[in-house]
Amino acid sequence: EAEYQQDVEAAMLKMQQGGSRDVNAEVETLTKLAESKGRSMTETAAFAMTSVLSFVLPAPVNLPADAPKVHPAELPGTDKELLAVLGKQLKANGDLLEKLMKKRADQVMGINKMEKLAAAASPFVNRTGGVRYLGAAGQTLKLLYDTDIISEEAVIAWGQQKSAAVALEPDMDARFYEKAKPFITWLEEASSSEEESDSDEE
User: pLDDT value at position 26?
Assistant: First the structure.
């Protein structure tokens, strides 16, 4: 898994070389990569999303020598700075991520991989910088939601899955989920109030 994650990140980095972007060609590149490695497009899309999140962190040690210089030398100091830089990366890569992550299952896996990045869990064991996303978990999910990369349904579905998993295994690492919980609750409340107003109108 770690090797494939690096393959996707290297492919995503090559797409950052400036100039105009051909999103359909980029999707095709990633599709061919997935096929050649026998991996699913859901996993590929998730790693494409974590690649964009990683562009905001200092570069990992195993990057190809000819990779474009995208990563900052130092971690963004505050959550506000982190989200501002991530916002620029999502603007540059948003069309690609939207095309890759059309299904709810793609988006749920994307959030799962984002949690792994934040917790420096496999396949991101050496990415200690990912911990910056722990404190900003809810704000990062909101930014991905506001930029139409993940949907309300995907965030709520992920929250329900995580809540059930934590109930079964109380000792599991739930730091990211706990930080994301206020945003998930806000979405759930907004969703249920919309349903109520719809039923009032009928």
Answer: 96
Both structure tokens of 10 = 């290297």
Q: Which pair of tokens denotes residue 111? A: 């959030």
The Cα 136–Cα 122 span in angstroms is: 20
Measured distance CA(37)–CA(8) in Å, rounded? 11
For 72: left if phi > 0, alpha if psi spans -120 to 50, otherwise beta; the answer is: beta
Token pair in block for residue 105? 């299952």
Tally Cβ neighbours within 10 Å of residue 154: 24
Instruction: Give tens-digit pLDDT for 44-54.
Output: 999 999 999 99
SS (H, E, C) 144-164: HHHCCCCCHHHHHHHHHHHHH
pLDDT at 131 over 70: yes
Average pLDDT over residues 16-21: 83
198: tokens are: 């719809």
Cis amide prior to 123 (ω within 30 degrees): yes
54 residue type, one letter? S
SS3 25: helix
φ and ψ at residue 25, rounded to 5 degrees: -65, -35
Q: State which H helix or E strand residue 82 sits in.
A: helix 79-100
Has this prediction a pTM greater than 0.85? yes
Provide the percentage of residues in the chain whose pLDDT is more than 70: 96
The pLDDT value recorded for residue 202 is 57
- Helix (H) or strand (E) holding 177, with range, is helix 175-201
